[in-house]
Amino acid sequence: VAPAPADEYAFFFTEALAPQVFRKNGQARFDCQVVAYDKLAQQTLEQYAAVCLLDPQPMPDNLWQQVTSYVEAGGGLAMFLGENAHTMPDFNRAAPQELLPVPLELQARAPDGNVYLTPNDSQHPMWAKFRPLRGSVDWEAYPVYRYWRFGKLVSGAAVVTTFSDQRPAIIERPVKKGRVMTITTPVSEPAELNEDDRWNLLPTGLEPWPFVMLSNELMLYLVGSADEQVNYTVGQPAIVRIEAQQRR
Fold first, then answer.
1. pTM metric for this prediction
2. Is the preceding omega at residue 5 within 30 degrees of 0, hence cis?
């Protein structure tokens, strides 16, 4: 779900998940459907393996509740906060706070480009594929100029990744059967945006393959693929997670 024109705002993210050339030859890992926020109410969210809110706008309580119900039933949600969250009171109301990890505090700025992702010590499953590359990913080449700062996290929420200034970059919050990943900077800015107005260079820096890899690992985690092993060697115990109500 993206601001209008939705396809333009979602371009970098959907190309990272399902490049056009992969879609044409049937090799795309994900099937992405892009809708604008004014079309969200018409969507049956239960048909999707995961939902992403790109630079979410202020929404009425019934739409927030629609998304909350989806997550509570076991859905995965990613929220990339950006410019549209500048009306902080709209996001600090009770309805959106059912999903956000904490009320928004302020918009932090780092115009010198000295703030960037620092995932090297993260043990989160989302970063598992990055561990063999530790030290070889130049995150400094993809600076973050603006991001949202939070206060104290709600119970159960945890910081997955920080920026180089130790502020939260990615926060996970379990919501009943589902989970929410909140990213404190957006990935949906138009390509023609003036560099002085950009929030970051994650999808637009030189050869942004870390953004492509991160986007895929984030979504695999949200749809449940990243935390379950499916290939085993002979003699290795196989672990299958079964929810209590599904036990036989």
1. 0.89
2. yes
